[in-house]
């Protein structure tokens, strides 16, 4: 009987993992295709750069607001319910892209889809903790989840290009996403989710989420993630602009043409590789080593210029890959599982806010101090990676979260689960 229960639990966790991977793949497919969408929409709709940039920041700002404002919902009504509501809202908003060709319609739908992403993503992140058996297992599973996100980030832009080549609108990408959402909702309805203790309704509130800002673990990991995200987004938003006018050998020109795609591929490969690395090495020195390499890649690109950036910035994706899911999982693991939705939402706020603000700051400094030369923007991005390295150095030397993670292994991951 015990063996049957164990097998049933294992099968349920496998299906839940697959659904979580699919969710991350699906929304990455749309959010990380924004560069290709902007290029087409600008031409088709006669948009300015400022207007077109809303296709990116509207979603990111909405995700940030949803993360901090709705992250506690997964703790209050349950992971499954929050995921179903979020996927339903995302499916509706995505299907509505086929209803017209208005810039303002797209803006509203992108904002609504961002709110939906924030809701089901925080629930999914909390769910990863529910099915993990230790903080180490949590981190490895988070790397695998983000690996599927990386695959979606590759497939999405390719689909937009394929649709354009076939004479179809980029909005079909969102209709495909809506269809995937419906399939995932049906699968989730018939999947048994793990038992967990639902947070007290007086605790699962926006006020409680905001109170986590006073917690050193929530704030520290969130700040580190913000520095990482600002550097990562710099590459797929501004690297093509940085490389405009680049001339070199045939291999170098090929790298320049596919620089962002190479970055995405290496990032996806690195996240699956990260899950393996963390089974054999402690996360703290790995983060320190990788952040040092990333800093060197950005510094060399900013100082030497395009001849170095064409190789170094795409290469940094391999070493960036495991930093976000590792920091994210460790930050969440420092808290009781009843708080995982709230803290995941708070970290998501810093993630999305940094993804929106970082590129804007790079553009500003490039215009103000470089006459539009994006190399100045990448000097700022180098600063982001420098701060990340210093935080990793501090974490390696002083291990500020080690006690909280050790206690979580005993109190949160040691038990088989509690009834709702």
Automatic annotation (TrEMBL):
Topology within the bilayer: Multi-pass membrane protein
Gene3D superfamilies: MFS general substrate transporter like domains
Keyword Transmembrane found: yes
Places the protein is found: Cell inner membrane
Residue stretches making up the Major facilitator superfamily (MFS) profile domain: 16-400
One Pfam match: MFS_1
Keywords on record: Cell membrane, Membrane, Transmembrane, Transmembrane helix
Major subcellular site: membrane
Residues spanning the membrane: 12-34, 54-74, 81-98, 104-128, 148-166, 172-191, 217-239, 251-273, 285-304, 310-329, 341-364, 376-396
PANTHER family (UniProt xref): L-FUCOSE-PROTON SYMPORTER, PROTEIN TSGA
Protein name according to UniProt: MFS transporter
